[in-house]
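Example record

Each entry pairs one chain with its bound ligand, nicotinamide-adenine-dinucleotide.
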Amino acid sequence: MKIVVLPGDGIGPETMAATLDVLEAASKRFDLGLTFDHDVAGHESLRRHGATVTPALLDKVRAADGLMLGPMATYDFKDEAKGEINPSKFFRKELDLYANIRPSRTWAGLPHKVGTFDLVVVRENTEGFYADRNIESGSSEMLITRDVAVSLRRITRMCCERIARSAFELATTRQKHVSIVHKANVLKIGDGMFIDECRRVAQEFPEVQVDDFIVDAMMAHVVRAPHRFDVIVTTNMFGDILSDLTAELSGSLGLGGSLNAGRDHAMGQAAHGSAPDIAGQDIANPFSLILSAGQLLGWHGQRQHLPAFAAAAQAIEQVAAAAIEAGEATRDVGGRLGTAATGRAFAERLAHAR
Ligand code: NAD
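Structure tokens for the complex follow.
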């Protein structure tokens, strides 16, 4: 499996170095034959190539089997004409990575803020309110007069259908329960279509229990009783917000794994941002990126029918649990190690995983 590695901005290089230690250990222990193609995106690419991402990089990623993307300083990138392209949206759009799979679970050894839970947010990733990816060219956010802005949201039956299918397929491998999150009481047409498509796909999965929640009430439900959720399917922006909440409820935003998957490509990416406030201090939590790397291996294994990859993905999840319990983690989750040492300790445990 050839993986393109783009460390990203802020805490990206530190967390990616720790993640590479883990991937190398996984490759050795499970005989995966991973190879890495190191390149740059974000500020480093802007400096070197005049753009945060380039067409040549996209070609390279298309030809590889997977991409690991570090967190990007997206907020800094304002003008595409100056090469300031949001790398996350670039790969999500160009590779049609329509399903953003964001698991969150509580861990033994960490205080449970709201009780134990184990859920996955399945977020539509290619349309919705995201002005930089929901139209073919340009932006769907406009300044009509100096004082009037309009932001358009796109919802298509095709995108609703395929994200619903991802959620129901995932649910069949878990607790067989899908919760649809929407705002159809106000966005009657767009979210009405989303619910209709989810319910239509649900008919093909009679063994899966289905319910639905209005997004604002969902924030209360997920804080009050997160254990009642298994797979949550929702549109782009609601999923973005909800999955940061569930990651934080699990112990830290630094624990949120995130896989962006399409039909032919996938990208592991931390759920959090570039965290400039803690960059370069060796205190950033690398677990989010490590868990995302595990998801990428799992995706490849499932697609290529390679049990060793599935075993490696499972071992990464198990080692994360053991490492957190042993305090071999960063301070934000009560651990006693820095970022680099956390990666090394994780790799060491993985080398001896059964
Ligand atoms: P952030 O997610 O970078 O940070 C939010 C808070 O969480 C900060 O206090 C930070 O220190 C903490 N945090 C984040 N990741 C952590 C980790 N691994 N370990 C420990 N603590 C962690 O959000 P922000 O500060 O609002 O955004 C910073 C930049 O990141 C902005 O440019 C934003 O646009 C960008 N961003 C990028 C992505 C992405 O690349 N996927 C996602 C979100 C934000």
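The mean pLDDT is 96.
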